[in-house]
Amino acid sequence: MSGKYDLVIVGGGISGASLLYTTAKFTDIDSIALIEKESELAAINSHSTNNSQTLHFGDIETNYTLEKAEEVKEGAELLAGYLENYDPDREMHSKRSKMVLGVGDEEVAELEERYEDDGFGDLFPKLRPIGREEIGELEPKVVEGRDPTKEMLALQTPDGYVVDYGETTKSFIEEASEEANVDVYTGTTVKDITPTLDGYTIETSHGRFDSDATVVAAGSHSLQMAKELGYGQDKVLLPIAGSFFLADDLLNGKVYTLQMKKLPFAAVHGDADVHDASVTRFGPTAKLVPTLERGRISTVKDFFDVFGLNAAAFLSYANILSDRILLPYVLKNLVYDLPAAGPKAFLPHVQKVVPSVELEDIERAKGYGGVRPQIVDTKNKSLDMGEAKIVGEDIIFNITPSPGASTCLKNAMRDTHTLIDFLGDDYEFDEAAFREDTIGNFPRAE
Ligand SMILES: Cc1cc2nc3c(=O)[nH]c(=O)nc-3n(C[C@H](O)[C@H](O)[C@H](O)COP(=O)(O)OP(=O)(O)OC[C@H]3O[C@@H](n4cnc5c(N)ncnc54)[C@H](O)[C@@H]3O)c2cc1C
C-alpha cells in the first residue's frame, strides 16, 4: 500500500469518519485516504459499548454553561439530522425520553433556576420541567421506593437520541466510499509523520503515503503525534477510564443526575441500551489510568510520551489533583473496578437514579468502557473542558474526550473550512449541501 493523496485522515473513529464523509461528499478535494490501525473501524472510543451512547445537546448536562450548551447544540443537531436522514429504520440510533433529575430542595431549586433564569428553557424549546407524577409515568422505577417527602423535579425532553457511534462511523464511511476519490485502509498503523516541501510523508505499517494536507483524528494518540512534530507542547493528558454497570430493564429512557460543576466528565447516569431497551446501563465511572487505550498495557509508553515527564506536567497534575472536589472523586473511582468491592461502592450512584435497586441487580459490564483523553493546560495548570484542536501547517490534530462524538460533524465542518484554506482557491466546500444532508433534517419544535 502507498499513494499520494490531497488529504490523509489518520484514525477511523467517528471523528475521522465524519470528516471523510464531509470532505468526500461536499468538497472537490481530488483524493482522500483514511488510515486506521485496527482491523475494524470504530474499535476504540467510538465503539458502542465503550461510551455512554448519549447525543449531548447541552440541555440536561448541568456542568455546561449556557455558552457551552449553545456550542454543543448545533453539533448535536447536525448529527441528529444525519441520523434522521440516513437511519429511518433506527439501526444506528433510538429516540427516547431523557431527563435530568433533581431530588431534594437544593437540587430542585438549581434545576428551576437553570430552566427559568439561566436561559436553558429558552434555548431548548422542547425541554420542560416535570414533577413527581409525570416522572413516574415516564420512568416508574425512578419514583418507586423514593422517600415521598422529598421534592422531585426533572427537566425532560423527547429529544433523547441514543446513538451507536460505531455504526454511525461505518455509515459515514459507506456514504463517503460511494465517491470515486476515497480509499480506506484498515489494519494499517501510522508510525511516523514527516513534513515535506509540499505536505507530509506518512510512514505506516503497510507502506508510505504522501499528502498535501493531513488531519490526525487518532483520539489520545493525536496529542502524541502532535508533540512528535513540535506542536501542543503546552498540553498533557489526564486519561480517565470509564466503566459501566448493567441491570435488567430499569429505565425506559435516559436519566441523568446533576453534575459537579468542576468535573469535565459526565456524572453517573442510567439509560436503556441503544439496541436492546431491556438492558439498562449505568455509568460511566472515572478512573485515572496511565494508558491511552482501555486495557492496552502497550499504550502506557504512549501515555509517558504525551506526559513528557517534565516539571510543568508534574506541577499541573499536582495542582489539578490537589483540588478538594476532584481528589476525593478520583480516589473513590479507583474502587469501582474491583471485583467485589466495586459494585458495592457503586450501588449508591445507581440508587440515586433507581432507589429500589439492590446489589444483586447490577453487574460490571465486562469489556465495556473507554479512556477519555481529558486535556491539561500546562501553562495554566488547569483541566480543560471538552475537546481540543491544534492547527499546524497543513495539519490538524483533534483530541476528543466527551462530547467529541456528539460534535463530530460540527468539528468536521470546521476542519473542512481549514482544509480548504490549506489547499487553496481551487477547492470549494458546499456547506449549504452539507447542512441540507444533516441539520436540515433535524425536527424542530413547532
Ligand atoms: C466512557 C466514555 C463515555 C463517553 N460518552 C460519550 C457520550 O455519551 N457522548 C459523546 O458524544 N461522547 C462520549 N464520549 C466521547 C466519545 O467516545 C469520543 O469523543 C469519540 O468516540 C471520539 O472519536 P474519535 O474518532 O476522535 O476517537 P476514537 O474513536 O478513539 O478513534 C480514534 C481512532 O484512531 C485510531 N488510531 C490511533 N492511533 C493510530 C495510528 N497510529 N494509526 C492509525 N490509526 C490510529 C484508533 O485505532 C481509533 O480507531 C465518551 C468517552 C468515554 C471514554
From TrEMBL:
Keyword set, alphabetical order: FAD, Flavoprotein, Oxidoreductase
A cellular component annotation (GO) from this entry: cytoplasm
Pfam families found in the cross-reference section: DAO
Span of domain FAD dependent oxidoreductase: 6-378
Cofactor: FAD
InterPro entries, per the entry: FAD-dep_OxRdtase, FAD/NAD-bd_sf
GO molecular function: (S)-2-hydroxyglutarate dehydrogenase activity
PANTHER family: L-2-HYDROXYGLUTARATE DEHYDROGENASE, MITOCHONDRIAL
Family: Belongs to the L2HGDH family.
Protein name, entry field: Malate dehydrogenase
Species of provenance: Natronorubrum sulfidifaciens JCM 14089
